[in-house]
Amino acid sequence: MNKDDIKRVAKLIKNSSKTMVLTGAGISTESGIPDFRTPNTGLWEKVDPMEALSTSVLYNNPKKFYNEGFKMLLGMTEAEPNRAHFALAEMERLGYIKGVITQNIDNLHYRAGSKYILEVHGNTREGSCMECGNKVELEVLTDKVNNGEIPPKCDNCGGILRPDVVFFGDMLPEDFEISLHEVETSDLLIVIGSSLTVSPVNYLPQVAKEFVIINVGPTAMDSFAEVKIEESAGKTLEAILDELEKE
Ligand code: NAD
Q1: What digits encode the pLDDT tens for the residues 75-115?
Q2: In terms of DSSP bridges, do strands 188-192 and 122-129 run parallel, antiparallel, or are they unpaired?
Q3: Would you say residue 42 has pLDDT above 90?
Q4: Which of 9, 29, 35, 48 maximizes ligand 1 atoms within 8 Å of its Cβ, making it the mutation to test the pocket?
Q5: Which residue, among 233, 226, 229, has the nearest Cα to 188 in the 3D structure?
Q6: Pocket test for ligand 1, best of 33, 36, 237 (most atoms within 8 A of CB)
Q7: Which long-range contacts (CB under 8 A, 24 or more apart) does 89-97 make?
Q8: What is the DSSP annotation of 140-182?
Q9: Which residues does ligand 1 sit against, CB inside 6 Å?
């Protein structure tokens, strides 16, 4: 690892009055959840998430959604946070970052102890009724599906329940607007484990005053970053945290 890069990032954080972090699937690969792009492990190669996790399948063929896409989501809920998630929770606790904007739906920032989390693609903790909007824990959906109730129905109105994940074809939640504001009013954005190919989240670095990227592999914004670190998120964030605490 290039120690100068670690020092430069720590200095940028120290000099910034407000820093936000943007994470993608790459921060969770060390927890065993494959991302969409790494060759031979990416989720794209096993199923097509654009179809399995789409509103068109959810609305038009909910049985197919619950037999296929839903199972992909449940796989994520079994993973544990890794040292990258814990390092970010610690940086927030110590006041080095304000919070995390995540494209991930795996709940791992939440479980690692981060407090201010903007989940721009939703989460796999809750679900809601597509008719009346009634909110339930995701386990309610899981229990119903395991008991053969496919698709699972709302106890209040009989409508179909869905996970609170943003699917291809869905509008983005309010968290995206808040994220835009947070980044625009920050001095620094740290992008971690994202190829920055998913729109409109990949717009966030463009509104940042300065940004750094920690990502194995190229991203669309590498040439505009103050610093680009091509190392795994876990060891890089631990090294940055050590450096911040040293000075
Ligand atoms: P992406 O798959 O497009 O890019 C991930 C990037 O992280 C890749 O460039 C990869 O090389 C890099 N990477 C992999 N392991 C890394 C590591 N240990 N350290 C640093 N970098 C690493 O991910 P994206 O930009 O988040 O876009 C994918 C979309 O898929 C998002 O919308 C997200 O919602 C969804 N998704 C979420 C999860 C999850 O919740 N964990 C998993 C897969 C996909």
Answers
A1: 888 899 999 999 999 999 999 999 999 999 999 999 999 99
A2: unpaired
A3: no
A4: 35
A5: 226
A6: 36
A7: 89/113, 89/114, 89/115, 90/241, 91/13, 91/237, 91/240, 91/241, 91/244, 92/116, 94/244, 94/245, 96/13, 96/19, 96/241, 96/244, 97/13, 97/19, 97/20, 97/21, 97/190
A8: HHHHHHHTT-SS-B-TTT-PBEEEEEPPBTSPPPHHHHHHHHH
A9: 24-26, 28-30, 33, 35-38, 43, 76, 103-106, 121, 193-195, 197-198, 215-217, 232-233
Ligand 1 center from residue 242 Cα (angstroms) = 25
Residue having the nearest C-alpha atom to atom 19 of ligand 1: 232
Distance of CA 153 to CAs 34, 75, 102, 142, 228, Å?
A: 30, 22, 29, 11, 47
Which amino acid, one-letter code, is at 98?
K
Collapse the DSSP code of 228 into the 3-class scheme (helix H, G, I; strand E, B; otherwise coil) and give the result: strand
Which tens digit of pLDDT belongs to each residue from 108-129?
999 999 999 999 999 999 999 9
**Which residue's CA is the nearest one to ligand 1's atom 3?**
195
| Ligand 1 center to 157 CA (angstroms) | 37
85 is catalytic: no
39 phi and psi angles, rounded to 5 deg: -55, 140
Closest atom of ligand 1 to CA, residue 28:
41
List the structure tokens of 104.
């991930």
Atom number of ligand 1 nearest to Cα 23: 26
pLDDT band at 68 (very low <50, low <70, confident <90, very high): confident
